[in-house]
Amino acid sequence: MAPSRILPFPFPIHIGTDICQISRIHAILSGARGPRFIRRVLAKEELVRPRGHVKAILDGDVGRVRDAAVFMAGRFAAKEAAFKAHPWRRLGFHDVVVQRVGFEGREGEGEGSGPPVVRIRGGEAEQMAMVSISHDGDYATAVCMGFDPAAAGGRDGPRGEDGL
């Protein structure tokens, strides 16, 4: 016998995931659209001190495209995962900033030694979210865990009593 009521997930947590093919990003970065793609995906804060291989693409040097493609595929996947983990927000690439946080919770200078996190902005108060980025072969993947503060007040959250 099927249950008469579907219980909602009891926590205001959402998970987003994405996978990105590195060779696809490599093809973009190898062409004339490379610098424009980087500026479209990375926020201003991420462009202040770009990694060497990303800076080379921005400067028109396509000699280090493979390293830049691996990095950019990871960032692209992380931002797409963040979009999916925050479905109640209308986010664009520049609303999600991937950064490092030190192990004691202190913000790093872009290339810190701590794990990556995403800073979510746009529309509401800024918020941090956990993210994990991984690379294997021709793919970069990312998972993001988001928290919905509006749903935290009530067990049923914004979906209503029936969880739908």
UniProtKB/TrEMBL annotation:
GO BP: fatty acid biosynthetic process
Describe the location of the 4'-phosphopantetheinyl transferase domain by residue ranges.
Answer: 15-144
Give a Pfam family name: ACPS
Recall the GO molecular function terms of this protein's record. holo-[acyl-carrier-protein] synthase activity; magnesium ion binding
* Keyword annotations from UniProtKB, A to Z: Transferase
Q: What is this protein called?
A: 4'-phosphopantetheinyl transferase superfamily
Whose protein is this, by species?
Lasiosphaeria hispida
Taxonomic lineage of this organism? Eukaryota, Fungi, Dikarya, Ascomycota, Pezizomycotina
